[in-house]
Design brief:
single chain; 6 helices; 4-stranded antiparallel sheet; 6-stranded antiparallel sheet
Length: about 375
């Protein structure tokens, strides 16, 4: 009785294995792979989901990996059955290729889980940033401290330009050119919004942009008291942001219109492109801000780049406004293994598809 049940179980197991390795299962696996790609990966790429996130989805086993493993298992079983039937030596070579691809995928999955953290940072146009230093990267909304190891990269933003359709808040293009290297910026690449690049095991993405006015404060003798670029969230026009000057006890609030004309106290913004910027600036005394909001106001006014505002005997001005770029990057050590594994699987799949086609037409001889 027990032996009969064991025999039935063994026979059912063999049938299941043969069903998984059948041609019909191969068609289902291939169809599911195509469906997963169309339903998940293509929309993600269209809407700008970073490539590193798609790869992490695959490495974590969500959506893509179960179907992919089923497809590879089908190929391995087909090759195993054909090799046992005394087929040509090419079956054995294909079987070895598929096993090597499986090992490479396992290595890639392990490395993907131990990749360096995602780093988000802001770089002003023309600025060079050393990412190897453990510092906080300030975005317009919050501070981010990258956890774990930071990639050793010197980064420079050479150029970034957004383009809009007339005066509408509608992107037509956002292009950035960056230079980077381990010791100095050597390699130059171009990035567009929603189109991350993979360079030297780095996935680099452009997330957004903003305005970085350069302020300067001069004393009565014309000596520079303070000055720097400040990355502010003042886009779209009408949005307000501020920065603090601790040594002067000031809070400087700004609104920026990128291409504006001033008629009286009425601002007419002609377009979203940074052509003739106009700033509305008001300065508060920081220590009085909470106790006496009205009395904390020190000065206010509209400024063009280069105009000056008198504040407590100092002259505050904004000589220029540059763009800044908001970027992210991930160093993925699994990428070389993943590329070789996928190339191996594609090669073996094409050869196996050709063999199946010839077998179906009766033109493939199985004798070795």
């Amino acid at each position: 009785m027990v032996g009969g049940q064991g025999g039935n179980f063994g026979e059912k197991g063999r049938k299941i294995i043969r069903a998984i390795g059948s041609r019909r299962a191969a068609h289902w696996a291939l169809g599911l792979l195509i469906a997963v790609y169309l339903i998940w990966l293509v929309p993600f790429q269209i809407y700008g989901v970073p490539a590193w996130r798609i790869r992490n989805m695959a490495a974590s086993g969500w959506v893509f990996l179960p179907v992919y493993w089923f497809f590879m298992l089908n190929l391995c079983l087909c090759l195993f059955f054909w090799a046992r039937q005394g087929g040509k030596a090419i079956y054995r070579w294909l079987s070895w290729l598929m096993h090597a691809a499986l090992i490479l995928l396992i290595i890639a999955g392990v490395l993907a889980r131990h990749s360096e953290p995602k780093v988000e940072f802001i770089v002003t146009e023309g600025q060079t940033l050393d990412l190897s230093r453990r510092i906080s990267y300030v975005t317009p909304e919050r501070e981010m401290m990258a956890e774990g190891r930071l990639p050793k990269i010197i980064w420079r933003l050479d150029f970034i330009r957004p383009e809009f359709w007339e005066d509408k808040l509608l992107f037509t293009d956002l292009l950035a050119k960056i230079s980077y290297g381990s010791s100095q910026p050597e390699k130059t690449v171009s990035l567009r919004l929603g189109q991350p690049l993979v360079q030297d095991n780095l996935t680099i993405g452009l997330q957004g942009f903003g305005y970085a006015p350069r302020y300067q404060v001069l004393d009565k003798q014309g000596r520079l008291v303070s000055g720097s670029f400040v990355n502010l969230t003042v886009f779209p026009p009408g949005q307000e942001d501020w920065f603090a000057l601790e040594n002067l006890n000031w809070e400087v609030h700004l609104l920026v219109w990128p291409d504006a004309e001033l008629k009286g106290n009425k601002v007419n913004n002609r377009s979203m492109n940074l052509r003739q910027p106009l700033l509305y600036v008001y300065v508060l005394e920081k220590s009085k801000k909470e106790k006496d909001p009205e009395g904390a106001l020190l000065a206010k006014g509209f400024l063009r780049p280069g105009d000056e505002l008198e504040v407590q005997g100092y002259r505050l001005s904004f000589p220029e406004i540059r763009y800044y770029g908001h970027f992210w990057l991930v160093r993925d050590k699994s990428l070389p293994y993943l590329k070789v594994a996928l190339l191996t699987v594609v090669t073996a799949s094409l050869i196996l598809t050709y063999i199946r086609w010839e077998r179906g037409k009766g033109r493939w001889q199985e004798n070795s």
